[in-house]
Amino acid sequence: MYDDLLKPNQSIQSFHFKQTNQARIEYRTHLNASIDCIRFLLRQGLVFRGHDESEDSSNQGNFLELLRFLVDHNEDIKAVTLRNAPKNNMLISPAIQKEIVSAATVETSKAIIMELGDAFFSVLIDESRDISTKEQMAVALWYVDKKGHIIERFLGIEHVTDTSALSLKAAVEDLFCRHGLSLSRLRGQGYDGASNMQGQFNGLKTLIMKENESAYYVHCFAHQLQLALVAVAKNHNKIATFFNFVAIVVNVVGGSCKRQDLLREKQATRVVESVHNGELPSGQGLNQETSLKRSCDTRWSSHYSTLISLIDMFPSIIDVLDTIAEDGATSEQKGEAEHLSHFIQSFGFVFNLHLMRYILGVSNELSQALQRKDQDIVNAVKLIRMSKE
Known about the structure:
Blueprint lengths: L1 H5 L5 H33 L17 H12 L1 H4 L15 H23 L4 E9 L5 E10 L5 E10 L5 H14 L7 E5 L4 H4 L5 H8 L4 E2 L3 H15 L1 H17 L3 H20 L25 H11 L1 H14 L3 H14 L2 H24 L6 H12 L1
Parallel strand pairs: 1-4, 4-5
Antiparallel strand pairs: 1-2, 2-3
Helix pairs in contact: 2-3, 2-5, 9-15, 11-13, 12-15, 13-14, 15-16
């Protein structure tokens, strides 16, 4: 026994080193499994937790279910994870998940800053309120990499106590300080049209330009186009009334699953008849099932999609309104449907429908062109001039 302990390969020190090294390998395998699951969920933008993460649950949430999937398909991971892991070091608690996510955030931010290097950059900022009514400020960077490509990177979300220009500027400076960025390297600012952002005297862009005159402010051309369309439409009584009736038609026809099914059924029948009569071409990807799309006031371009679907499904919409007028549950529903059916078949409504489809079609193409990543300001101005003509 004594002689064995004197042998280098059988000494207590060697045995302890082997045990420690084996434990290190197992821990690394265990940790990498959790990290891989978290990286996948972060990349796909999926939630981690489940409603019931107990052992008896049939669905323990994305993180645990994905980790269990790895365990079932990898014997090395299975040997050191979940039930085979130490009870005090399972690496699956919410706190551990958050720590790994925080580490991933730090490493991702470092990679962005390293890619940026000492180059100039622009900043895109927008503030919004989350579901818990906390004011937040999202910050993204724009810069040109060494290959000459324009890169856009999301840098982070900052909680702000209020949305005044001074508070936002302080939050920006704090974010820049943490990442080693300087306002002196800032060459562009991009915000929405709110007064606290683009105000001429006390807006965020003005406060930054007082320290750096080269940080030029550019209001998103696509956003300006949306604001212009909204302002023009609301200032024209007939067009404003037209869009109000479009919204009412969408609400009435799509007010229930039964009505939507009826609309799809009538539209499908009409498409089959049109294809049979040669009025519509047939082929792969053509004549797909569609629905009456709802518009959104904050995205004026969505009205274009609504008008397109309204024109394509116009006869079917009339049939649905006539059906509601005959079989409606109440006299109010019958009267409203009958009134809408007559109104949308009037010359004024149909004229405005095709007029606005044409106008919004032009502006929609312009909006899509302005949002292209390879778009430059000179070409953008030319496109705007051509659209106006």
